[in-house]
Amino acid sequence: MKRIKINTGKVGLVFKKGEYQKVITEGTHWLYLNQNVIIYDLTSEFIGTIAIEILLKDTVLADMLDIVEVKDNEFVLVYENHNFKRVLEAGRYFYWKGLINRTFQKIDKSKIYITENIDKALFSNYQLNKHIRAFEVAAYEKALLLVNDVYTKTLTGGTYRFWRNDTSIKIAKADMRQLQLEIAGQELLTKDKANVRINFYTQYKVVDIEKALLDNKEYEKQLYILMQLALRTYVGGYTLDELLEKKENIANAVFEEVSKNTNQLGVKIVNCGIRDVILTGDMKDIMNQVLIAQKRAQANIITRREETASTRSLLNTAKLMEDNEMLFKLKEMEYVEKIADKIGEITVSGNGNVVKQLKEIFTVNN
Fold first, then answer.
1. Parallel/antiparallel/unpaired status of strands 35-41 and 179-189
2. What is the pLDDT of residues 238-270, one digit of tens each?
3. Residue closest to 175 by CA, chosen among 203, 207, 135
4. Domains of the chain in sequence order
5. Who's near 82: CB < 8 A, 6+ residues apart?
6. Alpha helices in the chain (DSSP H)
7. Where is the Band domain (predicted)?
């Protein structure tokens, strides 16, 4: 005989010539010499040295074990003393009862929605995270949830998690803020065949995400084409001069026209306008020449207007002098003063007309 001692927290399985005999627990035990003992730690998972089906025939041993069966479409979360320990994949697992308080949470991963009560802090744990698909939807976005390519529901801002399995899960997101679409460098012909380049913009919002993403492919490109065609139509109906003068009218017309068709795209036009009208090639030089000619014509008109006013003033002065001898004398004095500023000395007599004498002086000098 031989004595075997099993310490606290341990358990022993007795074998005789490789055949399982019994289980022994804490305490001192006497065994035959041809018997041997394998000692297990009650805090660890139990892994048998022979087929588990043989061991489980011993009801005493079976009652001492937690048996966890995990199917192919399942996994199990193991908690020890209420703390997460590990994830069990498909298989069969055995844990000793008694010393550690273990709980097992079985998860059916064939479904997509996470309905189990799981602490969110565990989602970042790699063992669990690899079984999860996560999608982020920003606060300014909405998203369509597609399960096996079938629309299921619309998601608002937040983090969404689903179990990872063979089911296809996709989300299609749209920005719900006010957006701006630029239609730049559009080369168009006006009614009078002038070639211009126009930079146009439009501001819009997605108002129906289902229409925008489910009923339409690339709704932004379709909106771009609608704006482009409407712009071409209205620009082609104006001459260059009308285009430059009525940019706002064209923008309003494009706005009204495109707004009729945006409902089917799930978007709403908020505003639009022409940013720039750029003249291309020789047209720019021609317009510069026209502008210069216009300014010269305006300058000539102003000059002629001034000359006419000056002549009219002289005529009025002459008429007044003809009717008023005193005014004539004052005018003589004015001219004498102006001449005196430029001539050193002039001698005239006191008899006769001063202007007449001045005339005779300049005639002699000449």
1. unpaired
2. 887 777 788 888 888 889 989 988 999 999 999
3. 207
4. 2-105 (no CATH), 128-175 (no CATH), 178-284 (3.30.479.30)
5. 101, 103
6. 52-55, 59-63, 126-129, 209-210, 219-235, 240-245, 247-259, 282-323, 325-340, 354-365
7. 132-291
